[in-house]
Amino acid sequence: MMILANELSVELLLVMGCVIAYLLPAVTSTRLSVQSSQRALGVAWLLHAVLLGLALVSNTPRFGFAPALSVTAWLVLTVYAIEHQLFPQLQARWALAGLGAIAVVLASLFPGAPLHSGSSPWLALHWALGIASYGLFAAAVVHAWLMSRAEKQIRMAAEGQSGLPLLTLERITFRFVGLGFILLSATLCVGFFFGETLYGSAAMQKGIRWDHKTVFSVMSWLAFAALLAGRHFFGWRGKKASRVLYAGSILLLLAYVGSRFVLEVLLGRAA
Fold it and tell me: Mind listing the pLDDT tens digit for each residue in 256-266?
């Protein structure tokens, strides 16, 4: 009991420290210097990584909609940190810091269901590919938002706040979409071809498991495929491309995070 209490207190301190570090650049973005904001975001990113690592190596690893969002937010921040080295003028710290704080709080409140120790190794690959695709599409959404904001600034003849030229933002956005589409395709392939190994023969006795997660995942895949095809063949860009990206991302969010939220929070079921 004493060890468990100590583990909980350490985890609580880490969560509080991580949230505070995230909130500093999010709430005081206009008052903190760029260097101070970057340091706070770096500390938050590190504490966030420690929390994810502790959850992974704990005696009873858990996973659910909130941990999935937490990993996704951490991946987006990792992408931002790498990208900021290439494009120092990129400015999205306050938005990403707010996203990170919300994700950490949700993961603390809703830790998810325990993972079964006897799960197939294909399940780990399936989840890893899925979470990675979530992170890439989330990064694409952030860049699409920056692109929309830059377009609005141009129309208002004001200085853009994203820090990057519009065409550069557009090119980066579609690179994230392309990489995310590849990983999402791999995720669906693993689910379709190794479904019996992942979910058991009883769940797959009628072929492909067409549950809510599968339906929304396939719908999101079709939306992203249409976006990439429209970009390649018809030159889609601007608002049209952003709307299709947002629609596909919402469908993908509903596929796992949405269905798990309904099961865990609204229905109170572990699976």
Answer: 888 787 777 76
- CA end-to-end span of the chain: 28
232/197: higher pLDDT: 232
- Collapsed DSSP state (helix, strand, coil) of residue 231: helix
Residue with tokens 């468990």: 4
Cβ 36 vs Cβ 115: under 8 Å: no
Domain that holds residue 19: 1-115
Q: CA angle, corner 254, sides to 252 and 256, nearest 5?
A: 80
Q: How far is CA 42 from the centre of its chain?
A: 18
- The whole-angstrom separation of Cα 157 and Cα 64 is 45
CA atoms within 13 A on the CB side of 187: 25
Say what the pLDDT of residue 5 is.
47
Q: Looking at residue 153, what is its pLDDT?
A: 74
| Nearest in space to 66 (alpha carbons), one of 112, 8, 20 | 112
Q: Are 97 and 150 within one domain? A: no
Any bridge partners for residue 62, and if so which? 114
Residues 6+ apart with CB under 8 A from 4: none
Q: Over the stretch 207-234, which tens digit does the pLDDT of each residue have?
A: 566 778 889 999 999 999 999 999 999 9
- Asked if 69 and 77 count as a contact pair (C-beta separation under 8 A), the reply is no
Same domain (yes/no): 128, 261 = yes
